[in-house]
Design a protein that fits this description.
Elements (H helix, E strand, L loop, with lengths): L4 H7 L3 E8 L11 H14 L3 E11 L11 H11 L5 E4 L2 H4 L3 H13 L3 E4 L3 E3 L4 H34 L12 E3 L6 E3 L1 H16 L4 H10 L6 E3 L5 E3 L5 H8 L7 E4 L9 H5 L11 E4 L6 H16 L15 E3 L6 E6 L11 E6 L3 H4 L12 E3 L4 H11 L2 H12 L5 H30 L5 H27 L4 H4 L2 H16 L4 H11 E7 L4 E9 L10 E3 L6 E7 L3 H11 L1 H10 L3
Parallel strand pairs: 1-2, 1-3, 3-4, 12-16
Antiparallel strand pairs: 4-5, 6-7, 8-9, 10-11, 13-14, 14-15, 16-17, 17-19, 18-19
Helix pairs in contact: 5-6, 7-11, 14-18, 15-16, 20-21
């Protein structure tokens, strides 16, 4: 008898694909571990005489059932193979392995049906939507799977809340610097890592380092990277330090000894979450977990402030440096002022602004506002704001205002053993750089490196040596003997004298640095001829009578002054006075 193609198709061995999924490795207790699923699925294929190839075993380990198809690698691959008709039937352990979301489950089943692929569940038996009854049963099973998912989530959340109230760590991997005690399930300090955490905070707060610089130092000093145990109980070690990792450490309030579970919304927004309550849940939802302290509350607050300053003053791709950039805000709208530059006029006669500041409003925000027809606040030349700098210099000229800060910075209390340990590490780094420099010279002399590459590498090594020298000097200041500490007044006076000499010969960039060091915020009322300047000095700071400023009314924690700025007419007169050609041209034009 002839065997037709149709008859051959009917008796042909079915090609099968199996799909396995678990959201966590500990689901063995529920009978749904990957091993349990795979064993059951292979038995099903064997008993039904299905052909199963190894490339058609699809496993999503550690993926939630709530995730869509495109976010699950194995399920995505399964669908791509189904479109190519690489198998005839897909076998799963249970319908909730595909999805615990009702709509996703139904859509997935319907997609397989449209592609002509059978779907079989060991737990629910055959799954199909081609008949009314089949569709109804599939929908009921999907709803039950979603309901079970919500029950699991609720149980997990209630369990976590209970453990959190007992002071146990419930958020997975412990923060760098801590370990989870196997008996109490509470955080305990890891001394070696805790020292690294403290070092990061001190670099940020006391040395004003950027995240990039802290990362560079961590790599250069070969500081231990984060390590934790994965779900299988094996140690997992990070390969190197990254800015993102260090940023997460510096904004984590757990290091202050008080961690609030359920405080922040997801996803965690790092610095924004800490300073902006919009990223935080209601206070009544917070659960306090007390842990060993690594840094003080005061140091943490200073770190957050410094991170904000680093963000505000970060170097951008600008052609020019602006003295007051990042400090100025409009006294009329409260908006931050942007910097700009107006070039000299071609006629070389008309006065120009040069560097100036203005309020920038995006086009979409201008509609229906006072900014619609232009900028009503106008522009303010930088030269008009120089009385602010003069006021700061007048304050710094009084030793009583400066010496307490110099004394606090120079004679910070510190752990002598810890400082000595850091000095030993620095000496090792000096030796490493010395070896590196010799190696570069050898390679260059052997003609295996061109001159430009040699100069570039040597320049970087010299920079690293300079940075290490500065760090060593700062650490050495902390190891003053008692006899030397008796002369601290003499040391401070010497430092103050050097500071005063330096202030008289500052570059433009150094002036900008000093301003940012001592000024918190400048609120500009340029049409009224003054600026409200919030300094980083205490309220009782003595203000010299020579300063063009007056103390504002009201209660402030810090010194806030009204500084009279230069008028626009006076600014123009000074330009004309300093430029005879411009003055002559304006006189002929009748402008003066």
């Amino acid at each position: 008898m002839d065997i037709t193609n149709e008859t051959f198709t009917n008796i042909r061995q079915k090609r099968a694909a199996i799909y396995l999924r678990v959201s966590t490795e500990d689901q063995a207790d529920n009978g749904t571990s990957l091993e349990t699923q795979e064993e059951a699925l292979r038995k099903c294929c064997l008993s039904n005489n299905y052909m199963l190839n190894s490339e058609h075993v699809y496993i999503d380990g550690g993926f939630s059932g709530n995730l869509p198809i495109e976010q699950r690698p194995a399920l995505s691959a399964l669908f791509e193979a189904a479109k190519l008709k690489e198998f005839d039937i897909v076998i799963i352990y249970a319908l909730d392995r595909l999805s615990r979301n009702f709509l996703n489950s139904v859509k997935t089943v319907e997609d397989f049906t449209k592609m002509g692929i059978e779907l079989f569940s060991i737990h629910e038996r055959e799954v199909e939507t081609r008949t009314v009854n089949g569709e109804l049963m599939t929908h009921i099973k999907a709803v039950l799977a979603q309901h079970e998912r919500r029950l699991i989530t609720e149980r997990l959340m209630n369990g976590r809340l209970k453990c959190a109230r007992e002071g146990k760590w419930v958020t997975g991997v412990p923060p760098y610097g801590y370990r989870v005690d196997s008996e109490t399930k509470k955080l305990v300090k890891h001394e070696a890592e805790a020292e690294v955490v403290q070092k990061f905070y001190e670099w940020l707060v006391y040395e004003k380092c950027s995240l990039r610089e802290i990362t560079r130092r961590a790599i250069e000093q070969n500081l231990p990277t984060p390590k934790h145990k994965n779900a299988k109980g094996k140690n997992r070690v990070g390969g190197k330090w990254y800015k993102r990792t260090i940023n997460r450490i510096l904004v984590n309030e757990v290091y202050t000894g008080a961690f609030y579970y359920n405080k922040y919304k997801r996803p965690f927004q790092f610095l924004n979450a800490v300073v902006d309550e919009q990223h935080q849940r209601p206070q009544e939802d917070h659960i306090l977990i007390t842990v060993p302290e690594i840094v003080s509350q005061e140091l943490f607050k200073k770190a957050i402030q410094q991170l904000q300053d680093n963000r505000r003053f970060q170097k951008r791709n600008e052609k020019r440096v602006y003295l007051f950039a990042g400090l100025l805000h409009s006294g009329y709208s409260g908006k931050k002022l942007q910097s700009g530059y107006q070039s000299p006029k071609k006629d070389k006669v008309t006065p120009y602004l040069g560097k100036y500041y203005h309020v920038y409003v995006p086009a979409l925000e201008r509609i229906g506002t006072d900014y619609d027809s232009g900028n009503p606040e106008g522009q303010c030349a930088e030269s008009r704001l120089m009385p602010i700098w003069d006021t700061l210099l007048a304050i710094l000229s009084d030793p009583k205002n400066v010496i307490p800060q110099l004394e606090e910075y120079t004679f910070k209390t510190s752990d002598e053993a810890k400082v000595k340990k850091e000095l030993v590490q620095l000496d090792k780094q000096f030796d490493t750089l010395k070896t590196k420099k010799q190696r570069i010279q050898e390679v260059y002399l052997e003609a295996q490196m061109d001159k430009d590459d040699y100069n570039s590498r040597m320049k970087q090594v010299c920079k690293d040596e300079k940075d290490l020298t500065i760090q060593k000097q700062k650490l050495s200041q902390m190891l003053l003997k008692k006899t030397e500490q008796k002369d601290r007044d003499k040391i401070i006076q010497s430092l103050y004298s050097k500071l005063q000499t330096k202030l008289d010969n500052l570059s433009y960039e150094e002036q900008q640095y000093i301003l940012r060091l001592f000024v918190e915020k400048i609120t500009l009322y340029h049409k009224k001829g003054y600026a409200e300047v919030a300094f980083k000095f205490p309220l009782n700071t003595k203000v010299p009578t020579s300063a063009p400023a007056s103390v504002t009314e009201g209660k402030h924690m810090r010194l806030v002054l009204h500084v009279k700025i230069k008028s626009e007419s006076d600014r123009r007169k000074e330009i004309l006075k300093s430029n005879p050609l411009m003055q002559r041209g304006n006189a002929l034009a009748g402008n003066i």
